[in-house]
């Protein structure tokens, strides 16, 4: 059974930093592209970024709203992907979901974590 | 303002059919696979349709997807009260080099 478990959310002041994690199981993590999607309170889904598998270059790409402030990384030995959030703004307040299609070819996200809430407030 | 346009809400009676539209452009919907998600209150999104018209295992055939040009649609037949949820379309945008979602459509089963 595929599981994605996010952790590390919390309350942080504007301008602050936080690192959230997503630990995966049930599929061959090393071959999977991993993504982060966020949802502000009462709002829709917003793609944050994705990191490719190392076999596909291991590079990360980001939405314009977070580019330069957020950084994704992965540790394949721990089946974990990280999202480092720097320069946080109140508009970054959201539930952050980890998502992946595992090793299926094509588009879409088959699997989602339960989400971790990041609140940016003074 | 979302890159993909969806109606904010749709409604229909139990047993009826509803269609949710997702309008994009040549840099996203037209050239890339579209997926659809259902989000029940308080839950993570759930994949309903991927690659325009494919259903993951376990998704009933009441849910179907299609795409033509720069628009995609999700059709739900035999509506049930349990289908009340928010529905989102998503795809990749080649110009933005980013994933994009529609603003979401709230389905009410009257």
General description of the model:
The complex is a heterodimer of chains A (122) and B (110). With 122 residues, chain A is an all-beta fold. Chain A is built from no helices and eleven strands. In chain A, the strands form two sheets. In chain A, strands 2, 4, 5, 6, 9, 10 and 11 form a seven-stranded mixed β-sheet that branches. In chain A, strands 1-3-8-7 form a four-stranded antiparallel β-sheet, with no helix packed on it. The model of chain B has no long low-confidence stretch (mean pLDDT 97). In chain B, the strands form two sheets. In chain B, strands 1, 3, 4, 7, 8 and 9 form a six-stranded mixed β-sheet that branches. Chain B has a three-stranded antiparallel β-sheet with strand order 2-6-5, with no helix packed on it. Chain B contains no helices and nine strands. By secondary structure, chain B is mainly β. The chains are: A mainly beta (122), B mainly beta (110). Chains A and B meet through β5 of A and β3, β4, β7 and β8 of B.
Structural features:
heterodimer; A: 122 residues; mainly beta; 7-stranded mixed sheet; 11 strands; 0% helix; 48% strand; B: 110 residues; 6-stranded mixed sheet; 3-stranded antiparallel sheet
Number of strands of chain B: 9
The number of helical runs of chain B is: 0
Assign a percent range to the helix content of chain B. Answer: under 10%
Largest sheet properties of chain B: 6 strands, mixed
The coarse silhouette of chain B is globular
Biggest pleated sheet of chain A: 7 strands, mixed
> Which residue ranges of chain B are poorly predicted, with pLDDT under 50 across at least 5 consecutive positions?
none
Q: Pairing-aware structural class of the strands and helices of chain A?
A: mainly beta
**Structural category of chain B:** mainly beta
**Roughly what percent helix of chain A?**
under 10%
Backbone CA Rg of chain A = 14 Å
How many strands appear in the DSSP assignment of chain A? 11
């Amino acid at each position: 059974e595929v599981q994605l478990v996010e952790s590390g959310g919390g309350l942080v002041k504007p301008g602050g930093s936080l690192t959230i994690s997503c630990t995966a199981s049930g599929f061959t993590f090393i071959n999977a592209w991993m993504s982060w999607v966020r949802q502000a309170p009462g709002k829709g889904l917003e793609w944050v970024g994705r990191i490719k598998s190392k076999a596909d270059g291991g590079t990360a790409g980001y939405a314009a709203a977070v580019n330069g402030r957020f950084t994704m990384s992965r540790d394949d030995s721990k089946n974990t992907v990280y999202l480092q959030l720097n320069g946080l703004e109140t508009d970054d307040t959201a539930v952050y979901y980890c998502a992946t299609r595992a090793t299926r070819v094509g588009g879409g996200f088959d699997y989602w974590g339960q989400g971790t809430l990041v609140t940016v407030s003074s | 303002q979302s890159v993909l346009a969806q109606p904010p809400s749709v409604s229909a009676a139990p047993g009826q059919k509803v269609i949710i539209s997702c309008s994009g452009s040549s840099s996203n919907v037209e050239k890339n696979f579209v997926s659809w998600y259902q989000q029940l209150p308080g839950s993570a999104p759930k994949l309903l349709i991927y690659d325009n018209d494919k259903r993951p295992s376990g998704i009933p055939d009441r849910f179907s997807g299609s795409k033509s040009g720069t628009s995609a649609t999700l059709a739900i037949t035999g509506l049930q009260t349990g289908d009340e949820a928010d529905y989102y379309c998503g795809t990749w945008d080649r110009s933005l080099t980013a994933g994009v979602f529609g603003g979401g459509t709230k389905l009410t089963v009257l």
